[in-house]
């Protein structure tokens, strides 16, 4: 009996301790969720696989009950957690001040920009003078001289008293554009202002602008009040050089009205050649053949080569080979015709020849001279336009170094023109009576 009573007392004690341990376990689990702590490894072995304490385990220790814990925490754990629940967010805001609508002016009008009259132009015989007000846009904002240019040419002066900037240049300067109409020569410039930021700041208070400046001149008229001198060349004529001229050469039929459809010739034939310049809107021009070279390939510097016109228009082939080559009398200012007797290069590898010529053009109003002429040899030198005295230098050296004067006004244009290949063949030979 004594043994059974001891076992019963032990079971009661174990049951009481199980209830206390279960309450302590729930308290520690809630505390660990709010502040994690690492539990000793030895305590983990006291729980069985089902989560209950095993009092018969060798390393199990009975928990010690602390009565002070119940005094400090009189409320239950569930009631404490309800007090620490989420707080309702605040929905209070600052009061909004109502916006007062302002009345707009009933008679307001947007100011429209006006076209300023701030650029003045004066065109002289060979120069253009431009004055620009510093208040270029008539808005009280002065422009910076460094931002103003005319075709890339800067300001050359400033009149502080009148508040203007000055640009003055020759008509051919500042990237001017020359246009020719039926009655006028027109020089056009671009006056450009690019805003410049104020010193030490990245800002500007003016706009950019481009103003067209033009000078008009009557064609072939002297714009000054002085009388024309006989040797004076009108400025309108000399400026034609800025446009591109097209020089060309063509093979022609015997009537000189149509181009020859074939480039094949035989020895003894005459090759008709026309040299011309396209005039378009230019003043009338007269064309000359300055020199010509024949080669077997297009390269004018190749060997063999034969120069048959040289010394500024002297057709030397007739004098050197006693051929019939010559210039025809001139009938057109923008064309010159000449005939070349067909030939072949001795020992040449090809029957083809290439002809390259330097062609010049002068004002039709200027007479021929030692540098611009068309001379043929036939018992002496003769000019195609009848001015035979200009051919006197063909046996020496033509030009200023030969004692001849330069062309009047010194105005001429030149370019290259070529023909080829021109095929020259031999006649077929037959011997009569040969079986």
What does this structure look like?
Belongs to the ZP domain family. ZPC subfamily. It contains six helices and 21 strands. By secondary structure, the chain is an alpha+beta fold. Among the domains are: 119-218, Zona pellucida, ZP-N domain (Immunoglobulin-like, Sandwich); 246-398 and 410-425, Zona pellucida, ZP-C domain (Immunoglobulin-like, Sandwich), CATH 2.60.40.4100. The protein has an eight-stranded mixed β-sheet. Strands 3, 4, 7, 8 and 9 form a five-stranded antiparallel β-sheet that branches. The N and C termini lie far apart (171 Å). The relative contact order is 0.08. The model is unreliable at 34-53, 225-243, 401-409 and 429-435 (pLDDT under 50).
CATH architecture of one domain: Sandwich
Extract low-pLDDT stretches.
Answer: 34-53, 225-243, 401-409, 429-435
State the CATH topology of one domain. Answer: Immunoglobulin-like
Cα-based radius of gyration, to the nearest Å? 55 Å
Characteristics:
disordered C terminus, 435 residues, single chain, 5-stranded antiparallel β-sheet, alpha+beta, 8-stranded mixed β-sheet, Immunoglobulin-like, 21 strands, 14% helix, 29% strand
Short description:
With 435 residues, the chain is α+β, with helices and mostly antiparallel strands. It has six helices and 21 strands.
